[in-house]
Amino acid sequence: METIKLSNGVDMPILGYGVYQVSPSECERCVSDAISVGYRLIDTAQAYFNEEGVGNAIKKCGVPRNELFIVTKVWISNAGYERAKASIEESLRKLQTDYIDLLLIHQPFGDYYGTYRAMEEAYRAGKLRAIGVSNFYPDRLIDIAEFSEIPPMVNQVETHVFNQQIEAQKIMQEYGTQIMSWGPFAEGRNNFFGNDTLIAIGAKYGKSLPQVALRYLIQRGVVVIPKSVKKERMIQNIDVFDFTLSDEDMQTILGLDLGHSLFFSHYDPQTVKWLVQYGKNK
């Protein structure tokens, strides 16, 4: 598995397995399958309610813990120093591990500065190997990077061929922050799986549309975490390191960028109100 080096020198796999919307009842099986076919980065979150399944899988998989890279996220309801501090211990317990490889703030709401202080403390104590944020637009990223002792090492944001985060990635690079994609397949929106451009490019390399989409992001230095509950698709999604897209094909795919979210905007007041209320109640 190819890796990228975070700002603190930690090596992070550039492709992993995401468990968003994987039910708690089947999470252990899915993560076990993913690890068995070669995935070493597993991405979960407190709000997914499946950290226990991830923990069971990594405990039973037979792969040494130091060969796995486990990511989880602090949810809005756990924002603030004291709550975040307690939630980190809870995540460690559920994941059945002494340390988490990467902990992110899931959403830029609530007392996320207090959350980040708790994360910095846990990082210094060796409970976290890296820390970062998720869904932080450039303005919020700049703010927390400038006023924290340890700038975020990763920012996980919606990133796919229709919302490529070109300018946001440049700002992340200024602060030594690694871009990480959620939704690399756009969850099928905008007729993603029927896109003629990606299908045609895939045919040139003998690769599927999803493989082309993942390869494009990887060549841009984006960490990707495709999700599937089917083992055969897990195998296909990880099989993207035996070809390289040409410069011409990279430019063609760049032309698919719409420059905006296909899901929601943190700049929209109604979306923010919904997320905040959802975060308080979940």
UniProtKB/TrEMBL annotation:
CDD domains per UniProt: AKR_AKR5F1
Domain NADP-dependent oxidoreductase residues, every copy: 21-253
Family matches, as SUPFAM superfamilies: NAD(P)-linked oxidoreductase
Coiled-coil blocks: none
One Pfam family from the record: Aldo_ket_red
Keyword Oxidoreductase: yes
Keyword line: NADP, Oxidoreductase
Family indicated by similarity: Belongs to the aldo/keto reductase family.
Annotated protein name in UniProt: Aldo/keto reductase
Species whose genome carries this gene: Phocaeicola faecium
